[in-house]
Amino acid sequence: MVLGWIWIGFFVVAFVVGLCRLLFFGDTEVFPEMMGATFTSAKTAFEISLGLTGTLALWMGIMRIGERGGVVEAIARVLSPLLCRLFPDVPKGHPVFGHIFMNISANMLGLDNAATPIGLRAMKELQELNPEKERASDAMIMFLVLNTSGLTLIPVSILVYRAQMGAAMPTDVFLPILIATAIATLAGIVITSLWQRSSLLNKGMGLLCLTVCLLVGLAAWAGARLPRETLNTWSSTVANVLLFLVIILFIGAGIRRRVNVYEAFIEGAKGGFSTAVRIIPYLVAILVAVAVFRASGSMDYIIKGAESLAEACGLRSDWVAALPTALMKPLSGSGARGMMVDAMATYGADSFAGRLSCIFQGATDTTFYILAVYFGSVGVRRTRHAVAAGLLTDLVGVLAAIAVAYIFFG
Questions:
Q1: What is the pTM of this model?
Q2: What percentage of residues in the chain have a pLDDT greater than 70?
Q3: Whole-number Å distance between alpha carbons of 122 and 115
Q4: Any bridge partners for residue 135, and if so which?
Q5: Over the Cα atoms of the chain, what is R_g?
Q6: Helix (H, G, I), strand (E, B) or coil at 151
């Protein structure tokens, strides 16, 4: 319901802003641009879903082999003590813990194409445990917040974009991104746990925080010690080797249990295809609303207002130039990526705004996209506090990114 009101709000604000530009400034191009944006974004939404079909089919097929082979079940048993603290409503040892872990691991390695189908599988199993099918459960919301916080240890794509835009040291944002995304993830866990009145003072939470800190510290050490070319090569190699090892492990486990791995793959792949078809309407709805909002000029007015407000409060306003990336990130990953590239092209890859836009891009994930796709795939309509918790997590990530950018580059 909340997501629906936000969706309506995008259109209402866009219409009001467009009408004002037409009546008061004689801008006759604004409504043609807005209508053009609706058709373009609807096509983009379908193309994204179409492109996602193959990935979903592949990874849901692999996941089905892993289920039949007992790998997912084994992972769930090992991680159950920790994840039970974050998901107290999920039965101990449930296979969904294996999918949750693999989804989070794929996100941490920057393997978005692998993370989405695994996440959709986890959401489907959480829905099976949900007594109210149209209402999001606490476990679903915690899982989504963990995704929207966007914990990433290897931001390969951002480093590649910086190299393409001519940055002298593309990896100089590596450590700031790690710090900002780790802060956002821990904040998301705390915010959601407090909202759901879950206990935070337990060994599981302490272990999780310690693990995150150790991983961030290890990645920071690697980022500070390794040369740029070596870091990029090893980051990409390790991520892809681990991903291929998952495939081999699942197939090997299936063979060991004498599973017909080919038939199991086909069965899972069929589910991936149907899931991709189901999410098309939700993607169209979100992307069209975002495109109309942008085309109306509403985003530009928000940026100018933020800059004026910062200057009126006596604060530095050089961070405002990178703000479009932060504002767009919860709405659209590709849109935020475009804003990041635009900031580097306009101000320079090694400028404060250029670097900060990269940290914004890596600090959090696409909240509304994730909510639309994940909830849409299982038919959840009442999202409860998922939107609020996700946006509060995004806000913490944005503030952390700004603070870290000033510490490193200010």
A1: 0.72
A2: 84
A3: 10
A4: 382
A5: 21
A6: coil
112: pLDDT confidence band, cut at 50, 70 and 90? low
Distance CA 190, CA 338 (A): 31
What's the confidence (pLDDT) of residue 35?
95
Q: Which residues of 178-215 are buried (b: 16+ CB within 10 A; e: fewer)?
A: bbbbbbbbbbbbebbbebbebeeeeebbeebbeebeee
Please choose, from the candidates 21, 33, 126, 62, the residue with its C-alpha nearest in 3D space to the C-alpha of residue 266: 62
The pLDDT value given to residue 235:
58
Cβ(44)–Cβ(288) under 8 Å?
A: no
Return the structure tokens found at 15.
Answer: 């219409």
Which secondary structure element, helix H or strand E, spans residue 221, and what is its range? helix 203-225
**Are the CB atoms for 4 and 386 separated by under 8 Å?**
no
- Single-letter amino acid code for the residue at 348: G
Report d(CA 245, CA 165) in Å as an integer. 33
Structure tokens at 331: 């709405």
d(CA 184, CA 134): 28
- Contact of 97 with 90, CB cutoff 8 Å: yes
- Give the single-character DSSP code of 321: G
Q: How many CA atoms lie within 13 A of 313 on its CB side?
A: 9
**How many other β-carbons are positioned within 10 Å of the β-carbon of residue 36?**
13
CB 364 within 8 A of CB 184: yes
**Cα-based distances in Å from 220 to 188, 226, 357, 407:** 22, 10, 20, 15
Side chain identity at 115, as an amino acid letter?
A: A
* pLDDT on residue 60: 78
Tell me the average pLDDT across 376-392: 88
